What does this fold into?
Amino acid sequence: MEKILIIDFGGQYNQLIARRVRECNVYCEVKPWTTPLETLKAFDPIGIIFTGGPQSVYLEGSPQVDPDIFTWGVPILGICYGCQLMAHLLGGEVTPAQDDSAREYGKTATYYNTDCKLFQGLPSEGVSWMSHGDYMAKVPNSFTLTARSDACPNVAIADQERGFYGVQFHPEVNHTEHGVDMIRNFLYQVCHAKGDWTMGDYKNTAITQLREKIGAGKVLLALSGGVDSSVAAALLAEAVGSQLTCVFVDHGLMRLNEGDEVEEAFSKWELNFVRVDAESRFLLKLAGVDEPERKRKIIGEEFIRVFEEESKKIGTVDFLAQGTIYPDVIESGAGEAAVIKSHHNVGGLPDYVDFKEIVEPLRMLFKDEVRQLGRELGLPEYLVSRQPFPGPGLAIRIIGDITKEKADRLRQADFIFREEMAKAGEDKHLNQYFAVLTNTRSVGVMGDGRTYDYTLALRAVTTSDFMTADWARIPYDLLDKVSSRIVNEVKGINRIVYDITSKPPATIEWE
It folds into this structure.
């Protein structure tokens, strides 16, 4: 299989670079710049991408790479810091930019030389996304200038004979016009990729590898009902069937009918599906708790206890399976980028289950790839396309203390919201939408009587990466229909509000 090596110098868009390469049907992996050179070479890439980074190449201690990499005969694309590092190591000069020497940030009008393979077939003018405070005062002798802006003469450089290309902007972000086409040109025109990375092929390869690894062993997986754990379960079920036991802990804080949908989705496979009805147990532990982080901890700890109890009934297993995906690995510090968050299923093995080894069949896949793999495995679309849903479930969409009555109320209101969005086709344009039951009560009028009931908030956002998000402009008529249905069909709610705050300053979830 042909592979692209992405060397991570600490840039914030490194996951996005990898996603763009995979979207072009070429496999890639992100490796930190500290990876030994022999390890990088053993990866045997058809091309290399140097990522961006927050430092300056000329400072002592800044991320570097052994110049021997330029002797491999492998094409290299440097992005932002990666471009400047290439220039720095090959005889150029990089200095701090002055006001008159191309310190550029944000959307920038850019002019391209379309004779350059990177820009072939693209318009000669466009908008690129800049984010650099340094300036290439001298370009290496073998390089030519292939793009410029009004402030900077060397926006892009190329040594086409050796296959070395550098851009000071970020082609991987949506703000750069035709940026993905530039990456595709590098992959296909420069690296001569064949595009053999597909989920159909991955499925077949992964099934074969899992069968070889697991043999006659027993596998245990904690199934949350989310996309990642469900696709991991389906892949393992396809590979080893009845050797797999899935423990599905239903904590009573899922969306309407969700538990039944998960159980139904796995009825086609001959696996051991254990559904634990733990609603009363979780609600008892959560009684009177209104602080969000405390809710999360209680649910997380109780989930472990329930899973532990069920696993003891099974006895020793050979493998514990987890739905770890590639962003989890990168965000937990496998790359050079700062650790964004620690994921519970990365880097450590739980001590509450008796098992010999861990297996993570989705470890190298991005979320969109996981969804496509789920389709290849025959999982229903309602599960594969399921929106992000927090582990604590509705507990953090109920502001204040949690009761079964509140959970049922929110479940019903949330279902109406999602049902009407789907009917109107708005679900295809949104990345996440849900209802929040606030702890605010207000006076209302129904019929001839006065009410004093809860306010429900609706939230809908569009986003490409969930790091930032914009509130969705849902048609007023649709919001009116949703509001009318909820206040008429859900007892205890008499007021609907719509959240029009973007992220930042707000978060997507309320708690």
Remarks:
- Residues 334-349 have pLDDT under 50 and may be disordered.
- The first strand starts at residue 3 and ends at 8.
